[in-house]
Design brief:
alpha+beta; 4-stranded antiparallel β-sheet; elongated; 473 residues
Length: 473
């Protein structure tokens, strides 16, 4: 609990400290943590904005997301541990509180240590709800008692000669009682009726086991507020051997006996000593808080790297959009070249039309945004060919480099066949666009295959289930 509380405070402090760092320190962290590939992707997604500023914002979002998830995980784990600590089941080191009336049975995990040596074990201690005392129909109880004489002996001849396991039913058909069992010697006869023949060896020094061992069996009948106990005496003879009880099994039997004998009480007392050896109890943690924290820690790490994946997806989307708009760009150049416009004039007209078309709308085109940047370079005095080549480099696609190469050759050498080459390039680009459309169609069909199989499975279930039901009937 202290660890998770410390982690919660530290994550909050880390978030505050990180968000208050100066721009210079953030740039140092950004250079160390962000890859060049990530910076190039941000430059492509935000062509008009400062890449350094966007890189810092991107890094801050990644780290803040990871720290927030870690802090949430630590806080949830701390709250869980605090709630478990404040509402612990073990009172004063030796008492366990029951649920109130009409509550449910609960299980408490306990670590039991031997006070004289280092022996210990972990056990699950069942704790039943509180029950009410009341009177019930005595006639039905007497009938149950008469029936139990024949039921509990199981396959044995009589209660005076028990050589195999007994039957301890929890209820009898036709009667409303719930039946619980206890024995005078739980190591000899368990509450479930199983006989431990190995126990006879331990009793041989004080008893003649060949004459049988006389012990008591107690059945408790309960129904709402009614409670009555029926006692039986049985004589046990050895037959089949069983393994000796371990320390944990022995403790569980003693705790179960104590728990069942004190069901009218609000609490029951755990055994203090076993064979004159003191016992020490300690409530065990179920490790849920640690599991919660580890899961959220893993989620935070995945979200940190998820940011890079999302950036890669946006870059691929941008490249697809540039390839989609390439055919339109080449066709417009062919059209305006035929009309007699120069390369600079065509570029300016396309940029002007884009400004008018978009206005204040949020819908932007990566191609025309890059063209606007290129136009700004030319207006600032940069050479046209240099600006166009820089534009192709920012686009980062081979087709645009090839297109700018044609324009640059025409501007530098005055090639007269530029229009024919552009027309050929336009036809080739259109053909590639058709091929790409076919590929996308095939990919869509592949993606639809799994949903179609699921629909087929649903149809088969709808058809087959009624048929199978009617066949069985």
């Amino acid at each position: 609990m202290i660890l998770f509380g410390f982690l919660s405070i530290m994550t909050v402090l880390c978030i505050i400290f990180f968000n208050r760092l100066s721009s210079e320190k953030l740039k140092v962290i950004e250079r160390k943590l962000l890859k060049e590939k990530t910076k190039d992707g941000l430059k492509k997604i935000f062509p008009k904005e400062d890449v350094s500023g966007k890189s810092i914002i991107f890094l801050k979002r990644k780290i803040n997301t990871m720290l927030i998830i870690i802090g949430i995980g630590a806080f949830i784990s701390f709250a869980y541990e605090w709630n478990r600590f404040s509402s612990g089941e073990l009172l004063d080191g030796e008492y366990i509180k029951r649920n109130e009336y009409m509550g449910k049975e609960k299980k408490i995990r306990l670590k039991v240590s031997n006070g004289s040596n280092d022996e210990s074990c972990v056990i699950d201690c069942p704790v039943s709800e509180r029950i009410y005392d009341d009177e019930q129909l005595m006639m039905l109880a007497k009938e149950v008692q008469e029936n139990l004489w024949d039921i509990i002996r199981g396959e044995n001849e009589s209660l005076d000669k028990i050589i195999s396991d007994m039957e301890f039913p929890s209820a009898i058909d036709g009667y409303p009682f719930k039946i619980t069992w206890r024995t005078d010697d739980p190591l000899l006869i368990e509450a479930s009726g199983i006989i431990n023949q190995e126990r006879f060896d331990k009793l041989s020094s004080s008893k003649n086991i060949y004459e049988g061992i006389l012990t008591g069996i107690h059945a408790e009948l309960s129904y709402e507020k009614f409670l009555q106990e029926i006692d039986f005496n049985v004589r046990i003879f050895p037959k089949n051997s069983r393994n000796e009880y371990s320390f944990g099994e022995y403790i569980e039997l003693m705790i179960k006996e104590s728990e069942e004998s004190s069901r009218r009480e609000e609490v029951f007392r755990l055994p203090e000593v076993i064979d004159n050896i003191p016992l020490v109890y300690e409530e065990m943690s179920d490790m849920r808080s640690m599991i919660i924290f580890i899961m959220l820690l893993l989620i935070s790490i995945l979200l940190y790297f998820r940011e890079d994946q999302e950036l890669d997806i946006k870059v691929k989307k941008r490249d697809r959009e540039l390839m989609r708009d390439y055919t339109s760009l080449v066709n417009k150049f062919v059209l305006f070249y035929s009309a007699g416009l120069t390369t600079r004039g065509i570029w300016s007209k396309l940029c002007k039309d884009y400004r008018i078309r978009t206005g204040n709308k949020d819908e932007k085109s990566y191609l025309y945004e890059e063209m606007l940047i290129c136009e700004g370079w030319i207006n600032e005095g940069m050479g046209e060919i240099v600006a166009y080549e820089k534009f192709a480099g920012r686009c980062g696609l081979h087709k645009y480099r090839q297109f700018i190469s044609l324009i640059g050759q025409a501007m530098g050498k005055g090639r007269e066949d530029l229009l024919l080459m552009l027309e050929s390039e336009a036809l080739e680009a259109f053909q590639e666009r058709k091929n790409r459309a076919k590929e996308l169609g095939e990919e869509a069909g592949t993606k639809l295959l799994f949903p179609m199989l699921m629909m087929l499975l649903v149809v088969l279930i709808i058809v087959m289930v009624p048929a199978l039901i009617s066949f069985r009937m």
